[in-house]
Amino acid sequence: MSTHTMGAVRLHEHGGPEVLCYDEVPIPRPGPGEALVRVHAIGINPPDWYLRGGMTTMPGEEESTVSLPLIPGTDVSGVVEAVAADVAGLSVGDEVFGLLRFPSFHGSAYAEYVAAPASDLARKPAGIDHVHAAGAPMAGLTAWQFLIEVGHDHPSPFQEAPHRPVSLDAGTTVLVNGAAGGVGHFALQLAKWRGARVIAVASGAHESFLRELGADQFIDYTKHRAEELVRDVDVVVDTVGGPESRRFLHTLKRGGAQFAVMPGVFDEEETAKLGVTVSTAQVRSSGVQLAALGRLLDAGAVRVAIDSTFALSDARAAHERAARGHVQGKIVLTVD
Questions:
Q1: How many angstroms separate the Cα of 150 from the Cα of each of 2, 93, 100, 105, 191?
Q2: In order of start, what are the domains of the chain with their CATH numbers?
């Protein structure tokens, strides 16, 4: 490969994991407000396989801006190779991580180099490696913006009212459904960081993992239904969604809230009768918030769990792993 080209995974068509092609392409040049990052690791996320499967319009977009071939991906950790003249605060050699250009399908992260908006980047925590840093951005910021601080005033494509996190402290109980996954394991840890009592719902194989992260109570959904065991919860964070998500409303106390990370099915009359609310948000890139999360990662207050790693050129296998489900933490691509 020449000094002007790089390896990158591209989509030339939509379909299953087999459509992910490892190509040789030109190294991008950073535009205004951007830094060129030499990528060491890439976190994979649901929007990556939504795009691969044929979704080309983000919620809130009126029309698609996707054209093939396209490099997918948003989450990176790497080293700054160059910066645009108008970028302050970043220098060549800085180790950084970020969620790039989200919400959009133009992150272009599945590559050896990426031109990244400097505002989407934060310094990589010195205490963790690139693999763990790459697993943090989208999942960590999703949990942060649902539970801690939205951090922006962009209208939501999912609801008219702005999403508002609730105050978390020692008197608060939070139930996390899908607690072992990317967003779930961050939500559990952030709630614990704020002092809340946390009930984790996942399959039994994840119990010891989730208790190590701080779960005060564990429910194996293959054996028990949470709504039959739990009452008077303040917040439900549902990272699974689907037609059965409304059942978690019955675990809430009056005045409680269910935060729907993934789309669910709800009945307005039912929520009104129960005296609870349902709210959701759309995660957005934020170098400032990622820096705050990075400080927690550096201090060991929050950690990133890695389910598995694959070489960038083996992105197909990484997507196949994701499709099998029961992921514990994050799946990450690595670059030599």
A1: 43, 31, 17, 21, 15
A2: 5-138+285-334 (3.90.180.10), 164-279 (3.40.50.720)
